[in-house]
Amino acid sequence: MPSQEIYDQARDIQAWIVGLRRQLHRFPELMYEEIKTSQLVRETLDELKIPYRAPIAKTGVLATIGTGKKPCIALRADMDALPIHEEADVDFPSEVDGKMHACGHDCHTAMLLGAAKILKMREGQLPGTVQLLFQPAEEGGGGGKQMCDAGVLEEPPVEKAFGLHVWPLLPTGSVGSCVGTMLAAAGQVQIVVRGKGGHAAMPHYCIDPVTTAAKIVVELQTIISREFDPLNSGVVSVTCFQAGDAYNVIPPTAQLRGTIRALTAERFATLKARVQAVAELVAKANQCEAEVEFPGIDYPPTVNHPEVWQSVRSIAGPLVGEDQVHVMSPIMGGEDFAFYAERVPSCFVGLGVRNEEQGATFGVHHPKFKVDEEALPLGSALHACFAIESLAELSAGTS
Ligand SMILES: [Zn+2]
Ligand SMILES: [Zn+2]
Are 282 and 321 in a shared domain? Predict the structure, then answer.
């Protein structure tokens, strides 16, 4: 496969990719509000004469390159930003107060458009279809699920999917992923503890939800440490504890919020059930009531298919050097690429964007998060090579 040729082509259009990325970076939009972002994607696809279906999942775009027939593979980018005020040292900072592309989804969108440009030039040689998924709302909104529910993997049936995420722990010029579970199943929990408020000098006339909620916070910590296999672990982090607002008043309620995570769907279901039981029973033992909810959309674990990871390795190796293809350990972050990976054999890959000299060392979701843009053509090349190689393999297998 002419992977080096494709990488050269991606480097030739580096300025174009970086230009798109910077434009997106300056105008970040939060989940399901990706109006301008979606418009830029559609305008760019129009310029490239690539047909698309939109809107899907409110602001999503599904673009199609190739024959329109089987075999078919999917490449995915997410488009949403975060409610963070940018403090990064860049010449093109966010122009929207309180919003920032702090997870690199601007890069993901621009890299996929770069791949679109390369693949369109080779459309006549593609023995099948490439679906380009520009999805909204990765940051907790389950945009990937909505895209799947809208049928983006169905016509023609997608047989493999590939996604990239900028990875600030890896240096530019390297990639990383692993076989099996790469990212955790993740969800949110909210616990409202109801007691009886009153004068704080007379606690015996009250039922104190604050002490009860404090006991729940502590008790939740032993679910993981005492009930879970340490090698198949999970996370319960209570991140928010809200109760009264006076020195001398016991409030009637206290509210806890947090995140729960596990590396398998089964463990995640167990964790939810145990969090609920512990909260309710600790509350009851303290004469309170606990109302437990799991708001938002639970993300499944992101599980990479062995064969797809293998083909990613065989593509990335010659491009970046075998020693720059890292086998990563799973982390407890969540990703809604998981919804695609749950349905079709997939691989999610971390793209190195770390550059100490440029100060590109901060993690994602940090207000100073910065990306080494030299990595972007590699991302476009990986997308394009993955599409070309996978279609070649699939068409050889079915002929
Ligand atoms: Zn993120
Ligand atoms: Zn992200």
Answer: no
DSSP state of 226: I
Contacts 24+ apart (CB under 8 A), 38-44: 38/79, 38/134, 38/136, 41/79, 41/109, 41/113, 41/134, 44/20, 44/113, 44/116
Read off the CATH number of the domain in which 206 is found. 3.30.70.360
| Residue 310 burial (CB count, 10 A) | 13
Structure tokens at 217: 């916070």
Dist CA 18 CA 8 (whole Å)? 15
The total domain count for the chain is 2
Tell me which of 293, 328, 357 is where a domain ends: 293
Name residue, tokens 């279809």. 129
Domain match, 385 and 307 both = yes
The parent domain of residue 105 ranges over: 3-183+301-398
Looking at the chain, how many residues does it have? 399
Pairing of strands 346-354, 158-171: parallel
Query: Do 19 and 153 sit in the same domain of this protein?
Result: yes
C-alpha 37 – ligand 2 centre gap (Å) = 16
At 75, phi and psi to the nearest 5? -120, 135
Dist. CA 164 → ligand 2 center (Å):
9
Give the predicted TM-score (pTM) of the model.
Answer: 0.94
Tell me the pLDDT of the chain (399 aa) as tens digits.
579 999 999 999 999 999 999 999 999 999 999 999 999 999 999 999 999 999 999 999 999 999 999 999 999 999 999 999 999 999 999 999 999 999 999 999 999 999 999 999 999 999 999 999 999 999 999 999 999 999 999 999 999 999 999 999 999 999 999 999 999 999 999 999 999 999 999 999 999 999 999 999 999 999 999 999 998 889 999 999 999 999 999 999 999 999 999 999 999 999 999 999 999 999 999 999 999 999 999 999 999 999 999 999 999 999 999 999 999 999 999 999 999 999 999 999 999 999 999 999 999 999 999 999 999 999 999 999 999 999 999 999 854
Ligand number nearest to the C-alpha of 350:
2
For the CA of 166, the nearest ligand: 2
Ligand closest to the CA atom of residue 165: 2
Indicate the residue among 266, 293, 320 that finishes a domain: 293
Nearest ligand atom owner, CA of 100: 1
Whole-number Å distance, alpha carbon 365 to ligand 1 midpoint, is 6
